[in-house]
Amino acid sequence: MGGNKADVLQGTLDLMVLKTLESLGPLHGYGIARRIEQVSGETIQLNQGTIYPALLRLEQKGWIKSEWGMSETNRRARFYSLSRTGRKQMERATENWERVAATMARFLEPASSETN
How far apart are the C-alpha atoms of 49 and 111, rounded to whole Å? Predict the structure, then answer.
C-alpha cells in the first residue's frame, strides 16, 4: 500500500479478514487479499508483506484456523477459516467500529447554523 491508496488503520485489517472469511468461507491468503481489495473499490492494496503477517497474527490469537489444500490452480495453499473465538471477536470489533463511525459522523457533519 502507499501513494494514492488508503492506508489501513491499525486493527481494521483484522476485522476485514474476519468479515471476509465470515462471508466467503475458507480462503487462501491471496484470495483474502484480492477480496478485500475488491470490496474496497481498489482503494486498499495488500501485498504479501501485509496480508501474511496479519493471517499469522490472527491464527496465533486463535481467531482463525488454517489447513493445507489445493488452490484453483492446483497448487498447494494454506486455507484460512474463521474460528468460534474469531466469530465472537468479529462481533465485538464490528460493534466497536460502528460506535467509532457514528462518533466520527457527528464530527464530520456540517456545523449547524446557530447564531451567537
Answer: 41
